[in-house]
Amino acid sequence: MAERIDRDQVIGFRLSGHGLDQRVPVADLVDAAACCGIQNSPPWAGPIAFHARVDGVTPDLVDEAVAARDLLLTWSMRGAPYYVPTADAGVFTAGVLPTTERALRHFIPGVEHSVDRLGMSVTEAVDRAEAAVREVLAGRSMAITELGVESAAVIAPGLSTERLRVWEAEGPHAKGQSIGEAVVHFCLRILALRQVVCFAPRTGNKAPFVFTEEWLPRPTVAIDGTAARAELLRRHLRCYGPTTPASFAWWLGVSTGDACLWWDLLEPELVEVDFGGPRWMLARDLDILRAATVPVGVRLLPPRDPYLQIRDRATLVDPSRHREVWKTVGDPGTVLVDGELVGTWRSRKAGRNLQVTFRGFGPLGDATRKRLAVEAEHVARVRGASTVSVEGLDVVPGE
């Protein structure tokens, strides 16, 4: 019979896996991204997620780590932008890369209508985009719009008359954007997983693309696709276990059936436990799970923090609160107090002031409100604000 695990053990295990049990020194900034990466959408979310895990982090330190090639910003799980350690680039790119046409269509939803109109498979579209991007981007740094325009223009002469008519027609994704440009945009997510392109540090509001091989003069640690997939699943299990193949597939961005390519690799390393039904985890982590306890501390997690990127939402917070935490558009940040999600927060920056508005799921004690006010001050500094105004706590920062 599978061993029964309780919720406190799971919460404690996952929080420690995500580095949310205690902040590490700023010297360990890169290691904080090694667990399951740090998603950076919206663009200011990455530094806030680092702040929840690293003591004394600033956006400048994150940018410096990228400029020094210690951190890499690339598209990864679910086609989202992630900070990952450069040394682990293969795990978060080759380890994510879908290998079948069906899996590619699932990974970049939205492209299927356009490639079907073109009479083209996603695989063919990606291959054509790669050849064009290699011609256009060499030695340059380019924003996605100009890269899409120039790459689509390079691809156009090689298309049949019928395909060219569709390629140059305005597409459904953005006004004035051709179907060809949109297809290139979708394909760039796969080219990031092929380690063809990655992001350079932001310039203003733009995160330009560069060739990965030009951006990383030091070779990254070589890892083949099979080893990368196995290691990616190990990291997922440490952060989100005990889990299921369906939950892993959701996190990765593929269908449950396609996730077998990853899951089957680790079957000898897994052990089944009972957590409201059959769940699996790494056998080597079972003792850590058994001993796990819920940590004490306050964190303001940004929208789409890695801890929240999970299908098993009912373990994190009561289902009645799910629509407040996970929205179709415009997710709020979440308030983590002593292991529990107790509310949401939103911020608005005006000049040098950051206004933070809290919305609790229930009453918050005086001590908790004061801790959250202090945390709001820290988040304001990470956002580049010199002052903070707080609403919803009824305390004055610095009291």
Main beta sheet: 5 strands, mixed
Number of helices: 19
Overall, the morphology is globular
Number of DSSP E strands = 13
What is the spatial order of strands in the main beta sheet? 9-10-11-12-13
Radius of gyration, CA atoms, in whole angstroms: 22 Å
Beta strand %? 15-25%
Helical content (DSSP H or I, runs of 4+): 40-55%
Report mean pLDDT, rounded to a whole number: 94
Which structural class fits the helix and strand makeup?
A: alpha+beta
Number of domains: 3
Structure explained in plain terms:
This protein has 399 residues and is of the alpha+beta class. The chain folds into three domains: 3-92 and 221-291, no CATH class; 101-193, no CATH class; 317-391, no CATH class. Helices cover 42% and strands 16% of the residues. The chain contains 19 helices and 13 strands. The strands form four sheets. Strands 9-10-11-12-13 form a five-stranded mixed β-sheet, covered by helices on one side. Strands 1-7-8 form a three-stranded mixed β-sheet. Strands 2-4-3 form a three-stranded antiparallel β-sheet. Helix 9 (144-155) packs across helix 11 and helix 13 (225-240) crosses helix 15. The longest helix is centred in the last third of the chain and has 17 residues, at 366-382. The chain is globular. The model has no long low-confidence stretch (mean pLDDT 94).
